[in-house]
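Subject: for your reference before the review

Hello V.,

The reviewers asked for a structural picture of the protein, and I figured it would be easier to keep everything in one thread rather than splitting it across files. Below is the amino acid sequence we used in the manuscript, unchanged from the supplementary table.
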Amino acid sequence: MSTVAVLITCHNRKVQTIACLDRLFTQLLPQSNALSVYLVDDGCTDGTAEAVASSYPAVRILRGDGSLFWNGGMRVAFAEAMRSDFDYYLWLNDDTHLHPTALDTLLGASAVLEQDGKNAILVGSTCDPVSGSWTYGGMRRQRSWRGIAFLPVQPQPDAPQACDTMNGNCVLIPRAIAKEVGNLDAAFRHGMGDLDYGLRSRKAGFEIYVGTGYAGTCAVNPAQGTCLDQKASFFVRWRNLVSAKVLPPKEWLVFTRRHYGLLWPVYAVSPYLKTILGLGLRTNGFKDDRQTN
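And here is what came back from the structure prediction:
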């Protein structure tokens, strides 16, 4: 029997949160697997907690005040779940709709790797519900003359694919890794925490694999009105860039110092300088305002 703690954080997306739970609780799993859901309601004012309690009374609801954002909310859920020492911890975004066999596929791949003596993180890839194109999942770190980028690792139908880190939309973490690496880092409020966790796990000697096929769907919002929108005013792009949801300077400084090598000061100033000069930015796999909060 495998016990799985499902960790979710939400903020005023009641319809999406319920839809996410609908897909989660209809997963095709052997009866030997038991799911326990920890949902952080981060100051929702749209009745999310009440709707969840009514539809899924077994979900454990944890309360936030609206200031946690994704990383902070997931930290609360992760910390509470780790008190009960589950076999696995599943990060799940509340706008991710899992396919019926997604969790069974990830658990099966993890079991195979464990038989080979490997404790590894398994990443479930998501695609756009309309186009079918890749949206979130495992990332490969690439160094080039342009700097460091995190590029998507496309899921394959026949075998898991190795990667360097991941987006946090659908991630299965075995107990051994959770104990060794610990929680998401409190240095981050929203984005960067998931990529940081993957990179720290790799530094600790653990492997990360992208599971076979797509685990589900998750749409990406358009770039209009964000720091990626070259048609927006400088003020709009700058405000979005330094917000808690994209690249707040103090958090970006921590991330670059930790993961970008000797040239980290160059990478630390690069996105801000490019925005000032009106040059285009790459998303590099970081979360933005399309995510919770």
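For the response letter, the relevant points are probably these. Residues 2-217 form a domain with the Spore Coat Polysaccharide Biosynthesis Protein SpsA; Chain A fold (CATH 3.90.550.60). Residues 288-293 have pLDDT under 50 and may be disordered.

Happy to draft the paragraph if you're swamped.

O.
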